[in-house]
């Protein structure tokens, strides 16, 4: 799943694309409710946000794949998740805190809370993050990035999963066939996140 595919206007990102990926993540998530909760002070967020978000890019490049638009205005980070609870605890949240902001427990807590509710009973494609540059949002680029993977999921009978970080993104995902799983991730004194699952559509 996810290997060697290429759509018109979309290519598979590699390690050499990492600076562009981090830049795009910083731009797209600068005012995201979850990012603003993790880093309430805007000046501090601008200093460390790239370090924090860079871990997501590194995980996707190493363990999954990143689809990026040819003009670098949007990208999607995906992970293939096998069935069964992982044998070892995921160290990514602790790594994010150590790399980005060691004195800020929220950098680790957000990963712990989302990891605790992540379903593992069935193999699925996990949309870890999607980013579109602010000046290009609202033009259907996010949908264009996601749909080819969902089409492959449908052909392969594979579900997909994500956590929506805003009501706006939740509505987009619902149009793509994702359904809210019923319980939000509630960040302490912060925003909600919506775990969403998509069953593959039959041909």
Low-confidence runs of at least 5 consecutive residues: 2-7
Give the termini separation.
18 Å
Strand/helix succession: EHHHEEHHEHEHEEE
Q: What share of the residues does DSSP label as strand, in percent?
A: 15-25%
Q: Give helix % range.
A: 40-55%
Shape: globular
Beta strand count: 8
Number of helices: 7
Backbone structural class: alpha+beta
Largest sheet: 8 strands, mixed
Task: Give the overall average pLDDT.
Answer: 91
Rg, nearest Å: 16 Å
Task: Describe the secondary structure blueprint for this structure.
Layout: E1 10-12, H1 18-28, H2 33-38, H3 42-63, E2 65-69, E3 74-81, H4 92-100, H5 106-117, E4 124-132, H6 141-156, E5 160-164, H7 167-175, E6 179-180, E7 185-186, E8 192-198
Parallel strand pairs: 4-5
Antiparallel strand pairs: 1-2, 2-3, 3-4, 5-8, 6-8, 7-8
Jot down its keywords:
single chain, 203 residues, alpha+beta, eight-stranded mixed beta sheet, 42% helix, 20% strand, globular, disordered N terminus
Structural summary, described in words:
- It is a single chain.
- This protein is α+β, with helices and mostly antiparallel strands and 203 residues long.
- 42% of the residues lie in helices and 20% in strands.
- It is built from seven helices and eight strands.
- α1 crosses α3 (42-63).
- Residues 2-7 have low confidence and may be disordered.
């Amino acid at each position: 799943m996810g290997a060697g595919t290429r759509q018109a206007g979309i290519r598979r990102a590699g390690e050499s694309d990492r600076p562009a990926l981090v830049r795009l993540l910083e731009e797209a998530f600068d005012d995201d409710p979850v990012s603003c909760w993790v880093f309430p002070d805007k000046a501090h967020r601008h200093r460390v946000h790239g370090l924090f978000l860079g871990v997501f890019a590194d995980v996707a490049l190493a363990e999954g794949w990143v689809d990026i638009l040819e003009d670098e205005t949007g990208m999607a980070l995906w992970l293939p998740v096998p069935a069964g609870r992982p044998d070892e605890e995921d160290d990514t949240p602790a790594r994010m805190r150590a790399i980005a902001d060691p004195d800020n427990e929220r950098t680790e807590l957000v990963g712990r809370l989302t990891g605790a509710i992540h379903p593992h009973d069935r193999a699925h494609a996990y949309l870890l993050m999607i980013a579109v540059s602010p000046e290009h949002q609202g033009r259907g680029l996010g949908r264009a990035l996601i749909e080819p993977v969902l089409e492959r999921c449908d052909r392969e009978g594979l579900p997909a999963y994500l956590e929506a970080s805003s009501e706006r993104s939740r509505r987009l995902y619902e149009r793509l066939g994702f359904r809210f799983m019923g319980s939000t991730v509630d960040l302490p004194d912060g925003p909600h996140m919506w775990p969403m699952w998509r069953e593959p559509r039959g041909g």
